[in-house]
Amino acid sequence: MLMKWHRLHNSRQMPWKGEKDPYKIWLSEIILQQTRVEQGLAYYNRFIQHYPTIQQLAAAPDQEVLKLWEGLGYYSRCRNLLLTARRIVKEYKGLFPRDYETLLSLKGVGPYTAAAIASFAYNQPYAVVDGNVFRVLSRFFGLDTAIDTLPGKKLFTGLADEVLDKQYPALFNQAIMDFGATVCKPMAPACIDCPARKDCAAFLTGNVNRLPVKEKTLQRKHRWFYYFIFEHRGNWLVNQRNQRDIWQGLFEFYLLETEAACEWNDKKVMEWLHDQYGIADALLVNISSVQTQQLTHQQIRGQFIELKLSSKPDFLKSYQWQPKNRLKELPFPRFITQFLEEHASIGS
DNA sequence: AATCCGGGGCA
DNA sequence: TGCCCAGGATT
Question: Which residue ranges does the record assign to the HhH-GPD domain (predicted)?
Protein backbone atom coordinates (compact mmCIF):
# COMPACT_ATOMS: atom_id res chain seq x y z
CA MET A 1 0.00 0.00 0.00
CA LEU A 2 2.67 2.48 1.06
CA MET A 3 4.83 1.77 -1.95
CA LYS A 4 1.91 2.24 -4.30
CA TRP A 5 0.95 5.49 -2.62
CA HIS A 6 4.56 6.61 -2.87
CA ARG A 7 4.68 5.83 -6.57
CA LEU A 8 1.36 7.37 -7.49
CA HIS A 9 0.54 10.14 -5.06
CA ASN A 10 3.73 11.33 -3.47
CA SER A 11 5.00 14.52 -5.00
CA ARG A 12 7.22 15.71 -2.21
CA GLN A 13 10.47 16.93 -3.73
CA MET A 14 13.67 17.36 -1.80
CA PRO A 15 17.23 17.83 -3.05
CA TRP A 16 18.56 14.85 -1.08
CA LYS A 17 15.87 12.47 -2.33
CA GLY A 18 17.31 9.69 -4.40
CA GLU A 19 20.74 10.95 -3.40
CA LYS A 20 23.34 8.21 -3.11
CA ASP A 21 26.28 10.23 -1.83
CA PRO A 22 26.45 9.23 1.86
CA TYR A 23 27.99 12.62 2.73
CA LYS A 24 24.97 14.47 1.44
CA ILE A 25 22.55 12.03 3.02
CA TRP A 26 24.32 12.26 6.37
CA LEU A 27 24.38 16.06 6.21
CA SER A 28 20.69 16.28 5.37
CA GLU A 29 19.77 13.87 8.15
CA ILE A 30 21.72 15.77 10.79
CA ILE A 31 20.12 19.04 9.71
CA LEU A 32 16.67 17.49 9.76
CA GLN A 33 16.88 16.07 13.28
CA GLN A 34 13.91 17.59 15.13
CA THR A 35 13.66 20.09 12.30
CA ARG A 36 11.03 20.56 9.63
CA VAL A 37 12.05 20.00 6.05
CA GLU A 38 10.98 23.54 5.13
CA GLN A 39 13.19 24.98 7.85
CA GLY A 40 16.24 22.83 7.09
CA LEU A 41 16.17 23.12 3.31
CA ALA A 42 17.94 26.48 3.03
CA TYR A 43 20.62 25.37 5.48
CA TYR A 44 21.24 22.18 3.51
CA ASN A 45 21.68 24.10 0.28
CA ARG A 46 24.01 26.55 1.94
CA PHE A 47 26.15 23.80 3.44
CA ILE A 48 26.42 21.91 0.15
CA GLN A 49 27.33 25.13 -1.61
CA HIS A 50 30.08 25.94 0.91
CA TYR A 51 31.29 22.40 1.44
CA PRO A 52 30.58 20.18 -1.60
CA THR A 53 32.71 17.40 -0.11
CA ILE A 54 33.34 16.06 3.35
CA GLN A 55 37.00 17.05 3.01
CA GLN A 56 36.02 20.68 2.59
CA LEU A 57 33.70 20.53 5.59
CA ALA A 58 36.36 18.87 7.71
CA ALA A 59 38.88 21.57 6.79
CA ALA A 60 36.59 24.48 7.65
CA PRO A 61 37.12 26.56 10.80
CA ASP A 62 34.70 25.83 13.66
CA GLN A 63 33.38 29.34 13.83
CA GLU A 64 32.68 29.56 10.11
CA VAL A 65 30.61 26.39 10.26
CA LEU A 66 28.77 27.45 13.39
CA LYS A 67 27.95 30.74 11.66
CA LEU A 68 26.36 28.78 8.80
CA TRP A 69 24.35 26.84 11.38
CA GLU A 70 23.29 30.03 13.17
CA GLY A 71 19.56 30.13 13.82
CA LEU A 72 18.93 26.44 13.25
CA GLY A 73 19.12 25.45 16.91
CA TYR A 74 20.40 22.37 18.73
CA TYR A 75 23.96 23.54 18.19
CA SER A 76 25.53 20.33 19.47
CA ARG A 77 24.50 18.90 16.10
CA CYS A 78 26.88 21.31 14.43
CA ARG A 79 29.76 20.53 16.77
CA ASN A 80 29.22 16.80 16.24
CA LEU A 81 28.95 17.35 12.49
CA LEU A 82 32.48 18.73 12.44
CA LEU A 83 33.83 16.07 14.80
CA THR A 84 32.46 13.34 12.57
CA ALA A 85 33.56 14.95 9.31
CA ARG A 86 37.11 15.24 10.61
CA ARG A 87 37.08 11.69 11.97
CA ILE A 88 35.91 10.28 8.65
CA VAL A 89 38.58 12.18 6.74
CA LYS A 90 41.35 11.11 9.11
CA GLU A 91 40.29 7.63 10.09
CA TYR A 92 38.45 6.44 6.97
CA LYS A 93 40.35 8.43 4.35
CA GLY A 94 37.22 10.40 3.59
CA LEU A 95 35.18 7.31 2.75
CA PHE A 96 31.91 7.10 4.63
CA PRO A 97 31.46 3.86 6.61
CA ARG A 98 28.75 1.48 5.38
CA ASP A 99 28.36 -0.75 8.39
CA TYR A 100 25.36 0.09 10.62
CA GLU A 101 27.27 -0.39 13.88
CA THR A 102 30.11 1.81 12.66
CA LEU A 103 27.64 4.46 11.58
CA LEU A 104 26.14 4.35 15.08
CA SER A 105 29.55 5.03 16.58
CA LEU A 106 29.75 8.40 14.82
CA LYS A 107 29.05 11.44 16.99
CA GLY A 108 25.60 12.81 16.34
CA VAL A 109 24.46 9.63 14.60
CA GLY A 110 21.85 7.65 16.52
CA PRO A 111 19.56 4.78 15.52
CA TYR A 112 17.44 6.90 13.23
CA THR A 113 20.30 8.54 11.32
CA ALA A 114 22.30 5.31 11.06
CA ALA A 115 19.28 3.55 9.55
CA ALA A 116 18.67 6.45 7.21
CA ILE A 117 22.23 6.40 5.88
CA ALA A 118 22.39 2.60 5.67
CA SER A 119 19.13 2.41 3.74
CA PHE A 120 19.26 5.51 1.55
CA ALA A 121 22.92 5.31 0.59
CA TYR A 122 23.48 1.56 0.54
CA ASN A 123 19.97 0.11 0.42
CA GLN A 124 20.55 -1.95 3.55
CA PRO A 125 17.41 -3.26 5.31
CA TYR A 126 17.30 -0.95 8.34
CA ALA A 127 14.00 0.68 9.22
CA VAL A 128 13.99 4.36 10.10
CA VAL A 129 11.99 5.21 13.21
CA ASP A 130 11.32 8.92 13.43
CA GLY A 131 8.35 10.94 14.59
CA ASN A 132 6.48 10.14 11.39
CA VAL A 133 6.97 6.41 11.76
CA PHE A 134 5.89 6.39 15.42
CA ARG A 135 2.71 8.18 14.42
CA VAL A 136 1.85 6.06 11.38
CA LEU A 137 2.44 2.79 13.19
CA SER A 138 0.64 3.71 16.39
CA ARG A 139 -2.39 4.82 14.42
CA PHE A 140 -2.46 2.03 11.87
CA PHE A 141 -2.11 -0.67 14.51
CA GLY A 142 -4.09 1.25 17.13
CA LEU A 143 -1.37 1.04 19.78
CA ASP A 144 -1.49 3.41 22.74
CA THR A 145 1.85 2.48 24.25
CA ALA A 146 3.52 5.80 24.96
CA ILE A 147 6.17 6.53 22.35
CA ASP A 148 8.39 8.44 24.79
CA THR A 149 9.04 5.41 27.00
CA LEU A 150 11.46 2.54 26.56
CA PRO A 151 8.70 -0.06 26.03
CA GLY A 152 7.17 2.22 23.41
CA LYS A 153 10.46 2.70 21.58
CA LYS A 154 11.07 -1.05 21.59
CA LEU A 155 7.56 -1.86 20.42
CA PHE A 156 7.55 0.56 17.50
CA THR A 157 11.14 -0.14 16.49
CA GLY A 158 10.34 -3.85 16.31
CA LEU A 159 7.18 -3.14 14.37
CA ALA A 160 9.03 -0.90 11.93
CA ASP A 161 11.52 -3.70 11.28
CA GLU A 162 8.65 -6.13 10.64
CA VAL A 163 6.79 -3.97 8.17
CA LEU A 164 9.92 -2.78 6.34
CA ASP A 165 10.04 -3.88 2.72
CA LYS A 166 13.35 -5.72 2.86
CA GLN A 167 13.66 -5.66 -0.90
CA TYR A 168 13.31 -1.90 -1.24
CA PRO A 169 14.34 -0.45 2.12
CA ALA A 170 15.30 2.96 0.74
CA LEU A 171 12.02 3.41 -1.10
CA PHE A 172 9.99 2.09 1.80
CA ASN A 173 11.66 4.34 4.38
CA GLN A 174 11.14 7.30 2.10
CA ALA A 175 7.52 6.35 1.56
CA ILE A 176 6.52 5.92 5.20
CA MET A 177 8.07 9.24 6.22
CA ASP A 178 6.49 11.15 3.35
CA PHE A 179 3.18 9.49 4.11
CA GLY A 180 3.40 10.54 7.76
CA ALA A 181 4.35 14.09 6.80
CA THR A 182 1.66 14.66 4.18
CA VAL A 183 -1.27 12.32 4.94
CA CYS A 184 -1.00 10.87 8.43
CA LYS A 185 -0.11 14.29 9.84
CA PRO A 186 0.06 15.13 13.56
CA MET A 187 -2.88 17.48 13.40
CA ALA A 188 -5.76 17.37 10.96
CA PRO A 189 -4.63 14.17 9.25
CA ALA A 190 -6.06 13.63 5.76
CA CYS A 191 -7.91 10.43 6.59
CA ILE A 192 -10.44 11.23 3.90
CA ASP A 193 -7.73 10.79 1.26
CA CYS A 194 -5.94 7.98 3.05
CA PRO A 195 -5.61 4.77 1.05
CA ALA A 196 -5.14 2.79 4.28
CA ARG A 197 -8.16 3.95 6.20
CA LYS A 198 -10.16 0.77 5.78
CA ASP A 199 -7.33 -1.11 7.51
CA CYS A 200 -6.37 1.61 9.99
CA ALA A 201 -7.25 0.60 13.55
CA ALA A 202 -7.30 4.18 14.79
CA PHE A 203 -9.57 5.32 11.98
CA LEU A 204 -11.97 2.43 12.45
CA THR A 205 -12.27 3.12 16.19
CA GLY A 206 -12.21 6.91 15.95
CA ASN A 207 -8.94 7.24 17.82
CA VAL A 208 -6.86 8.96 15.17
CA ASN A 209 -6.61 12.21 17.08
CA ARG A 210 -5.60 10.49 20.32
CA LEU A 211 -2.63 8.65 18.85
CA PRO A 212 0.24 8.48 19.28
CA VAL A 213 0.32 8.74 23.07
CA LYS A 214 3.01 10.69 24.84
CA GLU A 215 3.50 10.41 28.56
CA LYS A 216 5.72 13.26 29.55
CA THR A 217 4.61 16.85 29.58
CA LEU A 218 7.50 19.22 29.54
CA GLN A 219 7.58 22.13 31.89
CA ARG A 220 9.01 25.42 30.87
CA LYS A 221 11.73 27.22 32.75
CA HIS A 222 11.60 31.00 32.88
CA ARG A 223 14.80 32.98 32.65
CA TRP A 224 15.64 36.68 32.50
CA PHE A 225 18.63 37.71 30.37
CA TYR A 226 19.86 41.27 30.66
CA TYR A 227 22.48 41.97 28.04
CA PHE A 228 24.79 44.92 28.55
CA ILE A 229 26.16 45.98 25.20
CA PHE A 230 29.40 47.77 25.99
CA GLU A 231 30.93 49.81 23.20
CA HIS A 232 34.35 51.37 23.37
CA ARG A 233 35.62 53.29 20.34
CA GLY A 234 33.77 51.15 17.82
CA ASN A 235 34.52 47.87 19.57
CA TRP A 236 31.92 45.70 21.21
CA LEU A 237 32.40 43.44 24.21
CA VAL A 238 31.45 39.86 23.39
CA ASN A 239 31.82 36.49 25.06
CA GLN A 240 31.66 32.95 23.74
CA ARG A 241 29.33 30.72 25.72
CA ASN A 242 30.94 27.53 26.90
CA GLN A 243 29.01 26.58 30.02
CA ARG A 244 26.84 23.50 30.01
CA ASP A 245 23.79 25.44 29.01
CA ILE A 246 21.90 26.55 25.96
CA TRP A 247 23.72 28.13 23.02
CA GLN A 248 27.07 26.50 23.68
CA GLY A 249 29.72 27.89 21.35
CA LEU A 250 27.65 30.89 20.35
CA PHE A 251 28.54 34.47 21.19
CA GLU A 252 26.72 36.95 23.37
CA PHE A 253 27.21 40.27 25.09
CA TYR A 254 27.84 40.80 28.77
CA LEU A 255 25.06 38.84 30.44
CA LEU A 256 23.37 39.41 33.75
CA GLU A 257 20.92 36.60 34.38
CA THR A 258 18.35 36.91 37.13
CA GLU A 259 15.56 34.71 38.42
CA ALA A 260 13.11 37.54 38.68
CA ALA A 261 12.46 40.49 36.43
CA CYS A 262 14.45 43.67 36.99
CA GLU A 263 13.15 47.19 36.61
CA TRP A 264 15.93 48.98 34.80
CA ASN A 265 16.05 52.73 34.41
CA ASP A 266 18.86 55.20 33.76
CA LYS A 267 19.63 55.65 37.42
CA LYS A 268 19.64 51.95 38.27
CA VAL A 269 21.90 51.09 35.35
CA MET A 270 24.46 53.71 36.35
CA GLU A 271 24.33 52.65 39.98
CA TRP A 272 24.75 48.99 39.07
CA LEU A 273 27.78 49.77 36.87
CA HIS A 274 29.39 51.76 39.62
CA ASP A 275 28.69 49.31 42.44
CA GLN A 276 29.61 46.25 40.41
CA TYR A 277 32.63 47.44 38.45
CA GLY A 278 33.39 50.96 39.58
CA ILE A 279 32.46 52.34 36.18
CA ALA A 280 31.61 56.01 36.27
CA ASP A 281 32.33 57.09 32.70
CA ALA A 282 29.56 55.19 30.91
CA LEU A 283 27.09 56.84 28.59
CA LEU A 284 23.74 55.10 28.57
CA VAL A 285 22.57 54.97 24.96
CA ASN A 286 19.39 52.95 25.22
CA ILE A 287 17.41 50.47 27.28
CA SER A 288 15.40 48.26 24.96
CA SER A 289 11.88 47.05 25.52
CA VAL A 290 11.46 43.55 26.91
CA GLN A 291 12.33 40.93 24.28
CA THR A 292 11.12 37.35 24.44
CA GLN A 293 12.24 34.08 22.90
CA GLN A 294 10.32 30.88 23.22
CA LEU A 295 12.43 27.74 23.30
CA THR A 296 11.01 24.27 23.64
CA HIS A 297 11.62 24.07 27.36
CA GLN A 298 12.68 27.56 28.32
CA GLN A 299 11.18 30.96 27.99
CA ILE A 300 13.82 33.66 27.71
CA ARG A 301 12.86 37.22 28.44
CA GLY A 302 15.16 40.16 28.79
CA GLN A 303 16.43 43.53 27.70
CA PHE A 304 19.40 44.99 25.91
CA ILE A 305 21.16 47.87 27.62
CA GLU A 306 23.44 49.80 25.27
CA LEU A 307 26.35 51.68 26.77
CA LYS A 308 29.32 53.64 25.49
CA LEU A 309 32.50 53.65 27.53
CA SER A 310 35.13 56.36 27.22
CA SER A 311 37.84 54.19 28.73
CA LYS A 312 38.47 50.52 28.32
CA PRO A 313 37.83 48.75 31.62
CA ASP A 314 40.33 46.14 32.72
CA PHE A 315 37.77 43.70 34.06
CA LEU A 316 36.18 40.78 32.20
CA LYS A 317 39.46 39.33 31.01
CA SER A 318 37.85 36.37 29.30
CA TYR A 319 35.73 38.63 27.11
CA GLN A 320 36.79 39.94 23.70
CA TRP A 321 36.50 43.37 22.15
CA GLN A 322 35.36 43.01 18.56
CA PRO A 323 35.12 45.75 15.95
CA LYS A 324 31.76 46.27 14.30
CA ASN A 325 32.69 44.66 10.99
CA ARG A 326 33.81 41.47 12.76
CA LEU A 327 30.61 41.25 14.76
CA LYS A 328 28.60 39.87 11.87
CA GLU A 329 31.02 37.01 11.37
CA LEU A 330 30.23 35.66 14.82
CA PRO A 331 27.38 33.23 15.46
CA PHE A 332 24.79 34.58 17.86
CA PRO A 333 21.63 32.99 19.24
CA ARG A 334 18.32 34.06 17.74
CA PHE A 335 17.45 36.08 20.82
CA ILE A 336 20.36 38.37 20.01
CA THR A 337 20.30 38.42 16.19
CA GLN A 338 16.63 39.29 16.30
CA PHE A 339 17.39 42.29 18.45
CA LEU A 340 20.35 43.33 16.29
CA GLU A 341 18.29 43.13 13.13
CA GLU A 342 15.83 45.58 14.58
CA HIS A 343 18.58 47.95 15.64
CA ALA A 344 20.54 48.62 12.49
CA SER A 345 22.89 51.00 14.29
CA ILE A 346 24.55 48.02 15.94
CA GLY A 347 23.64 45.13 13.72
CA SER A 348 24.67 45.99 10.20
C1' DA B 1 15.29 6.29 32.94
C1' DA B 2 15.29 11.12 33.04
C1' DT B 3 16.96 15.49 31.41
C1' DC B 4 18.78 18.62 28.35
C1' DC B 5 19.37 20.79 23.90
C1' DG B 6 16.60 25.70 19.56
C1' DG B 7 13.82 27.59 16.71
C1' DG B 8 9.79 27.93 13.76
C1' DG B 9 5.01 26.93 12.33
C1' DC B 10 0.41 26.02 13.31
C1' DA B 11 -4.32 25.54 15.53
C1' DT C 1 -0.30 28.72 24.61
C1' DG C 2 0.74 23.80 23.61
C1' DC C 3 2.34 20.60 20.35
C1' DC C 4 5.32 18.93 16.85
C1' DC C 5 9.23 18.53 13.82
C1' DA C 6 13.54 13.03 9.01
C1' DG C 7 16.71 12.77 17.38
C1' DG C 8 20.88 12.30 20.11
C1' DA C 9 24.03 12.93 24.09
C1' DT C 10 24.63 13.04 28.83
C1' DT C 11 23.83 11.96 33.60
Answer: 31-182
